[in-house]
Known about the structure:
By secondary structure, the protein is α/β, with parallel strands linked by helices. Helix content is 28%, strand content 24%. It is rod-shaped, with a radius of gyration of 39 Å. The two termini are 48 Å apart. The model has no long low-confidence stretch (mean pLDDT 87).
Amino acid sequence: MTATMPTEPPNYPHCGRGAGDRDPVGCRGRRVERQPGETGDSQPELYAACLTHLADEDRDTYLASLGPGSRLDHRGTTIGGTVLDRLLGAVRDPDTGRPRLGTSQFSGAVFESDAAFDGAIFEGHAQFSNATFNRSVSFAWGIFQGEARFSGAIFASEAAFIEAAFKDDVWFSNAFFKANAWFGGATFEQASKIGPLVCHGQADFQTAVFSTAVTLEIAAKKVDCLRVRWASTAALRLRHATVDLSDAVLEYPVSVAASSTPFTVVRQELDGSWARQELDESGLTRSPVRVLSLRGVDASHLVLADVDLALCRFAGTIHLDQLRLQGRCTLATTPAGLRRRGVVPVRCTVRQTLAEEQHWRAAQGRAGEGWTPDPDGGEPLTPTTLAPVYRELRKAFEDGKNEPGAADFYYGEMEMRRHDPHTSWSERFLLQVYWTVSGYGLRAARALSWLLAAMAATVLLMMLWGLPQESPKSVNTGIIEGRRITVITDTPTPMNPHGPYLDRLSSERFEPALRVVINSVVFRSSGQNLTTFGTYTEMASRFTEPLLLALAVLAIRSRVKR
């Protein structure tokens, strides 16, 4: 973004050097004030030009009149590196060696060379609104004792506020950083809002301290909040950014949310009216807000809203089960489609996964199947570590009434336990069976497939060996003893079928076999005469088939429950 120069003259006495028909305003730099000590008058007089266009003798006289804590007013002035160095040298404290400035007015100033305010102490308000820094600028280890205003400032190169201390409020509304902005180690004691600002590079807040409630509105390529300390409530409203919260200290609730609409600022026009303007984000790649890591964060104070968690590392997060997710928070998913593992075709049911599971499976030689390897190339975490992470996230989703999401994390937990070499062989065997039969009670299609296969197998067994050759007929035998007659009814043992197998697969035998199976599914006895083999087959089907039906119902319920 380039600054647009207004055509109206500024509201302060300006230099005007170079004014003409094409530029009626000329140099917009404020005319330099003579310090009261120069003239002996209580009211300062003005030189005829700005600091840059002053005659050498007048500039020397002005700089000699300055001292530590002097008030500076160089609004609209184009300042080169040599002039800035001499200006800061004139206010340098001989005891500390640090520039000490009183109330400083640099609004609309243009810094043509590297601007090194390192270690500067601003004892009054520091006004850099709408200033332009064409080269790198550094306020490292600076102290802003009054308000610091950088609203509308343009930083064309690196901007460093490393270890700076802001004692009062600080303003970066509508500020543009064309490269990286470094706030590492900065202390914000009274800042209530930072931004909205646009950073085409990285906005680095590593180890920064926010002492009061603050709102950060940032559109950036990356926002680094590594080891940031939030000593009060905070709201991070981000656009297009990838944010890293590793080891951040959250003493109070902190929310990280994606802003769906561009940031806007209210600006005053030349005619005095106020207009709302969107920030220019043309230098940023349009992408969702992504969270890279929550390692070391106490998630009991964290709220995430509408962010992409596909790359997020959750292992090492404290109180992960208390993490609150709002809106649409997406995670990495299993590879879709049918693939081959050797000669065996495999297909993964789509579910949400941890980025760490993606890295582990890719490290097992399955990157070709679509699993994402660790971009850092580090040693992947083992299933032993990932199982409790899945368990805690499952609880967080359950507390948020997101049962389908919780089901995915239950599946992930079971998968990690099944692949954990430290799990006992008996437990791993049971988990293998549970996974094979129903996908841990979460895959309805798998359970129904096994149910249909079991029913078909039972029907076939019944037709081949379970149903007798023919239904046995009862035989009644009467015994007469004097005037007493005893009738005995005897049912012969069903005869095992014989003859060719194909002859047994008849429609007459199919109907009673199907009736046996259907009754078994609902855990009822068919009352059908069966052979000994058929009796045991029916007993087995009355146990397994209702169980498979229950697993299918459970899987469906886990997907639709709210």
